[in-house]
Every structure is written in structure tokens, then in C-alpha cells.
Amino acid sequence: MGLANAGFRVEAVCPPHHPLAKTSVVPRPHVLSPVTPLRSLADAISGVRPSLIVPTDDNTTRHLHQLRAGESGNAISSLIERSLGTQESFSIVERRAGVMQIGEEAGVRVPKTEVIAGTSDLEKWIARFGFPTVLKADGTSGGIGVRISHTHEDAKRAFRELQSGPRVSQPLLQRLMRHGRSLVWPSPPTHKSVVNAQAYVGGNDAISEVACWEGKVLASVHFQVLSKQYASGPASVLRLIENPEMALTTEKIVRRLGLSGLHGFDFILEQGTGNAYLTEMNPRATQVGHLTLGAGRDLPAALYAATSGQEMRASLKVTENSTIALFPQEWIRNRASAFLKSAYHDIPWEEPELVRACILSHPEKRVRESQHEEWIRELSASTASEI
């Protein structure tokens, strides 16, 4: 929707029955086959012949990297590099330790991160860095592949779970179901997952997303995380901030890797010092990229100007409120959350079928139809000042 408002004609590839089909922007998406995803992507790209590809999840980013490797030298491979950045960056952004190494080389603040091959490596890491220690599996997102351990037993158990591949523990699965999160996994792994240990940095979570072109940041947004869907999960409430260190870090990484398109970055703002530690990079669009928040903070418009060669259009700020509650994330987390009234609640009222689809994603979706209508009235009342 943000890209369409900026001037793009948008087509999408997604699984059947995806909420994208509920929007007026993409009324008939191309179907992504779970069995042959690369062929689905290649067919859609060949049929549409787009000027830009924007992945919105990690699996699709990996599929595009694989497609580029398998179709070297043709129009599709050139388009993928134009859209994402240099091919040399692909293997780096897929590895957590690789991104941290690039950060070190670029002179930005990153926590020490190492690949852990076995329990002996884990014991050595703990001897050096102590507890708490953070373990992260490559190829995971949404906090599913992250564990923070406080004892040797917890660390070893977390390592085994993460190394065995994309499986979800029962307590986490229950939380995900409770928060209405759908799980879409890649094909079952044929080898063990790569597990990284990362030095723990205490502080507040923060995120950035940038629009960039050929290694230059065109527009960016930076937020402090005020609430999350679950302990290690995605943000549900954010506060817009100015943070020169976060901005400089993203600029250095983008330049070093020659990136194009939309990319997200996760930070920890260290308690006591406020120092911004880069902890992860998401080589794709993230959940804040559609927000138009003034000059230099409109990512879709910046991308449209870069790809079309036209002057950047001036866009209205979606809100003057610096605190933003994401929909339906915060509403699903807590329908009585004070943020739903004090923050700008980012509900896409202009797409009523999408709003209904988001409401139906609530874990209590099996309640009677009249309850859904009541929830819509409740949401409308909570955001009346913003409509």
C-alpha cells in the first residue's frame, strides 16, 4: 500500500489466501507454491517484468539469492541484483556472524559474535563471556531462533534446539498461537542449522529501516521499541527517535555491502550509556517501512524517486504522534493496552477487508460473527481522533 501510494504499480507473489489479496492494491496476487517457490518467483518475475523486487520475509530473500545464483547472467539475475544489492553481499547478509564481522570492519558498535560448532565451543564461549549469553540460529526470524540463557544447562539445551533446525518449543508455540502468528517454514533442513553466540548487551531494543540505492541511504526511520508481541518477538509499539549513531551505523553497512531496496536493522541501546549496538540485520522490508513520517522518513517515496528518475514527491506525515501502535500486533497482544488510545494506532481503515482479515487473525477468531463487528466498533472508537 505504501509503495502504491508512492507511485508504483504493485504486483505480489504470496501463498494462497494471504491477506494481501484483501487489499485493493493487489486484488489478484500470483500464487507462491510451497513446493516449487523458486519457479513461482521466476514465473511471476518473467510475466510482470518489474523494475524492482521487494522481499518482505527472510525465506523470499533466500529464494531470490538462490534464483540469482541459478540464473546467472540473464534479465532475472540482473533485476535481483538491482533490487537487493551486489551479489557479493548475499552470502554475508544471510549469516548473522557475517553481518557482525562487516560491522566490526566498518568501525560500528557490535557485540562480539561467533559461530558455535558444538558444546565444547559453547563451554569456551561461556568461560570467556559468562551469563547471560545469547544464542541465535541463522535463517530464523521473529525471535523464534533466539535464546537467552542464564545457566550451563539452559545454554546447552538451547544450543541443541537451535542446531536441530526450525522447530518451535511447546511454550513458544503456544505464545505464537495466542498472538495469532502464522508459521511458514522453509523446507525441512538437510543439515544442522548454524548457531551463533552473541555477547549480551543490557538495554532497550531499537530498530531502523532504510531505503537505499547502490550503497547510499535515501531515507530512514529509527525507533525505540516500547512493547513487543512476546519476549523475544517483533515490536508492537514504537517511539520515533533521532539517533545519530544508529543512522551512521546503517549508512556504513549499506555502503560497505552496496545495498539497494529496503533493509531493517536491530539495535540495543545500552543501559546507562545509550550506546547503539547493532545486533542483527534483516535483508528485507520490515513492518515499519510503509510509515510516511516527513522529510527523509518516507521510504516508499525515496525508492520510487530512485527507480523512476523523478523528483521525490512531498508526502503528508501520517501522524504527529511519535508513538505508534502497530496493527494488529498490539491489539492482539492486549486489547486493553493503553497504547491503543495514547499512541497513533496504525489501522488501515481505507482497506476495510484487510482490517477484517487482521481481526480474524485474532486467536479468538472462532467467536461469533457479532463479536467481530463489536471489535471493529471498539477499534474505531479507540482511534477516532486519528480518523
Structural summary, described in words:
Residues 168-173 and 175-190 have low confidence and may be disordered. Helix content is 37%, strand content 20%. α3 (58-70) crosses α4, α6 packs across α10 and α7 crosses α8 (152-163). The chain is α+β, with helices and mostly antiparallel strands. Among the domains are: 2-92, no CATH class; 112-199, 2-Layer Sandwich (Dna Ligase, domain 1), CATH 3.30.1490.20; 323-386, no CATH class. The longest helix is centred in the middle third of the chain and has 14 residues, at 244-257. It is globular, with a radius of gyration of 21 Å. It has helices spanning 2-6, 37-48, 58-70, 75-84, 90-93, 96-106, 119-129, 152-163, 170-178, 244-257, 299-308, 329-333, 339-342, 352-360, 369-382, and strands at residues 13-14, 30-31, 113-116, 133-137, 146-149, 195-199, 203-213, 216-228, 235-240, 261-270, 276-282, 323-326, 344-346. The protein has 15 helices and 13 strands. β4 and β5 form a beta hairpin. The strands form three sheets. The protein has a seven-stranded mixed beta sheet. Strands 3-6-4-5 form a four-stranded antiparallel beta sheet, sandwiched between helices. A two-stranded parallel sheet has the order 1-2.
